[in-house]
Write a structure and sequence with these properties.
The chain is of the alpha/beta class and 531 residues long. It is built from 19 helices and 24 strands. The chain folds into three domains: 7-50 and 180-266, no CATH class; 58-114 and 281-354 and 468-530, FAD/NAD(P)-binding domain, CATH 3.50.50; 118-163 and 358-454, Polyamine Oxidase, Chain A, domain 2 (Alpha-Beta Complex), CATH 3.90.660.10. 36% of the residues lie in helices and 18% in strands.
Length: 531
């Protein structure tokens, strides 16, 4: 899903505060000390070395005999079904096609792309708006590889001109500077870094302790109050999509850097949101769909799935389809509404039924001109006013008309649907006009919105771990970064989607990665059955 262009700034502010604490220098003198190397989070290191499953993600419960099912096919080829035509399902089918195998994708809606959802000309001529996923990070290898392979241009936001523009931080009735924010984060970063070190030293005990806390609980323990508390809570609600009392404290702790054995500080939670996709993120899913266009059936809503011997019976509104191998590339927020008449581990059923989902909403508004850039502003900012977070929709688009996206989360995100899209845009524009004078006069009266919590094909913007869920579920059901031969499967039922990714949960890259790994799991089965 989208995430915000400002979240990386918050992560880097915490990193700078940690560096200042480590080296004992003023926070504004850190340019030569900024770390270049990234490390994997403590959770990933733990999962790679200490998983109780001898591999971590393979569930062997009820594994059927694939060979007998395949031999029963008239053409001696397997029937592979993929449920969901988001980037996870599409990439799985694409990778299988390149390996010489055909999979059929069944999509409930009448479009492909899932939460990569782009509209054109809704807020101004020639403007594209990403109503769902937006940014690609520098380390999103799967997404970058797909874009390169399909010749889809990526736009680099890190130009000198773009980086010279300023963001806005407005809390408790005043605008905060970067330096003021960094200085206030110094004691907070020190406390968080101490807990991050404890996680690395004793994962078994400390992870359970900290996962049981919400971000609100954790801020209480650290004694954070005033505008800094409001800032942290606004950032985390917008980024995680749930209120801070509904999100595990681990999500905040994993944002901080850590100090390794030789004393250098390495970033852990940085998200740079460096790239935009030219013409919108749906360009990528549309391009993959073209590669597998004869393999997609839309308007096919799965209503039940059950085991049928060594195969699966998939029930749709008007037909039943049997398959040998099934990839479920649906958000658990949708899957939990579908009867699963399968032999699944009880912990997996709990994971499917209980995993938290974010309540993010995007409201994009159109303007006749870029009022903010004339004032040296990037068009991005955080505030504890009702619009929470905003950023420039039209960055690098080169259009005459311009646009801002208001990115809402938590209770504010849900409540936004009480008003019409136009009222959302009008109210937020009027409020932001206090910080960006002239904005109200520049509004062209156009707006568009996608309310992800009530969008029936997603029912949430992306997965969000609630207190206790990571240590309760995620260590058992996860795709690890850097591990190519792994799977999240029960027999020939394979799972994919951003919610199954360790390093990139909530991002396009997590979904694309999981689709690739799910395809690898299918290929492993097919090659094994042929040997």
């Amino acid at each position: 899903m989208a995430r915000t262009p400002l979240f990386g700034l918050f992560s880097r502010a915490l990193r700078s505060a940690t560096l200042a604490n480590r080296y004992g220098v003023p926070i504004d003198e850190l340019s030569e000390l900024q770390p270049r190397q990234k490390r994997r989070l403590g959770r990933r290191k733990f999962l790679k070395t200490a998983t109780a499953f001898g591999g971590g993600t393979v569930l062997t419960a009820g594994s059927p005999n694939l060979r007998s099912a395949l031999l029963a096919q008239e053409a001696n080829t397997p029937k592979i079904a993929i449920i969901g035509a988001g980037i996870a399902g599409l990439n799985a089918a694409y990778q299988l096609k390149k390996a010489g195998y055909r999979a059929t994708i069944y999509e409930a809606s009448n479009r492909v792309g899932g939460r990569m959802y782009t509209v054109h000309d809704a807020v101004g001529e020639n403007i594209w708006v990403n109503l769902g996923a937006e940014y690609i990070n520098s380390d999103h290898e799967d997404m970058i590889a797909i874009a390169e392979e399909l010749n889809i241009p990526l736009l680099d936001r890190f130009t000198r001109e773009e980086l010279a523009l300023q963001e806005l931080y407005y809390f408790d009735g005043r605008t905060l500077s970067d330096a003021e924010l960094g200085q206030a984060l110094l004691p907070v970063a020190e406390r968080i870094a101490a807990d991050a070190d404890r996680l690395d030293e004793d994962w078994d005990t400390v992870s359970v302790e900290l996962d049981a806390l919400s971000i609100a609980d954790y801020c209480d323990l650290l004694g954070i109050s005033g505008w800094l508390r409001a800032f942290i809570e606004t950032v985390m609600v917008a980024e995680m999509g749930l209120e801070v009392d509904e999100v595990t404290a681990l999500n905040l702790i994993w944002l901080t850097p850590a100090v390794n054995e030789n004393g250098s500080v390495m970033a852990t939670g940085e998200s740079d949101e460096r790239y935009l996709v030219k013409n919108g993120t749906q360009t990528i899913t549309d391009a993959i769909a073209q590669e597998v266009q004869n393999q997609i059936e839309t308007g096919m809503a799965l209503t039940a799935i059950r085991s049928r011997g060594d195969r699966f019976r998939l029930t749709f509104d008007y037909t039943d389809i049997d398959a040998d191998i099934v990839i479920l590339a649906l958000p658990f927020s949708v899957l939990r509404r579908i009867p699963l008449r399968l032999d699944l581990p009880e912990s997996l059923r709990q994971f499917i039924n209980q995993l938290g989902y974010a309540n993010n909403v995007k409201v994009a508004t159109g303007y006749s001109k870029s009022v903010w850039r004339k004032q040296g502003l990037s068009g991005a900012g955080y505030t504890n006013r009702p619009y929470q977070t905003f950023f420039e929709t039209t960055q690098l688009q080169g259009t005459e008309a311009q646009s801002l996206t208001f990115y809402l989360g938590g209770d504010i995100g849900i409540a936004s649907k009480r008003y019409s899209v136009r009222d959302n845009a009008r109210i937020y524009t009027q409020m932001l006009n206090k910080l960006i004078p002239g904005l109200t006069e520049a509004w062209n009266g156009k707006a568009t919105r996608l309310h992800w919590p009530t969008y029936s094909y997603a029912r949430g913007s992306y997965a969000c771990w609630k207190p206790g869920q990571y240590t309760g579920f995620m260590q058992d059901y996860i795709y690890l970064e850097g591990e190519e031969q792994q799977e999240f499967a029960v027999g020939n039922l394979i799972f994919a989607g951003e919610h199954t990714s360790d390093a990139y949960q909530g991002y396009m890259n997590g979904a694309a990665q999981s689709g690739r790994l799910a395809a690898n799991a299918v290929l492993s089965r097919l090659r094994s059955s042929a040997s």
